[in-house]
């Protein structure tokens, strides 16, 4: 994919994709909490409902599991397809600076650095990085040599 055939994406469209991916994150949170609750015996079933009540170490484990699953969701889909579900639905994709899908390393770096981009809240570091970048790159994209583009 030649660079002249693409347009770098700014904050707005990336935010829409992120909002869609937040739904996936919620499903992953549900899976992580109930997986840990099942293993620790903290699931309570009443009639047709099941409640997970985690605190202390099990809650921390569930949070770390969710964090790992959320990062891997982005890493695997961006490496393999160049897109998460959210990016697919808004027709944008992640590419390496040479226009190919990002390598596993690049996808991992850009998504681990998402933890910095989200600081201090509401993706402030990431938004400022995109706004100050000539190629609309957040910190993770700059370090990983990737960009988010509209084909």
What does this structure look like?
With 151 residues, the protein is of the alpha+beta class. The protein contains seven helices and five strands; from the N terminus they run βαββααβααααβ. The strands form two sheets. Strands 1-5-4 form a three-stranded antiparallel sheet. A two-stranded antiparallel ribbon has the order 2-3. α1 packs across α2 (57-81). It is elongated.
Sum this structure up briefly.
With 151 residues, the chain is of the alpha+beta class. It has helices at 11-40, 57-81, 85-89, 104-112, 114-117, 124-132, 139-144, and strands at 7-8, 43-46, 49-52, 93-96, 146-150.
Note the main attributes of this structure.
single chain; 151 residues; alpha+beta; 7 helices; 58% helix; elongated
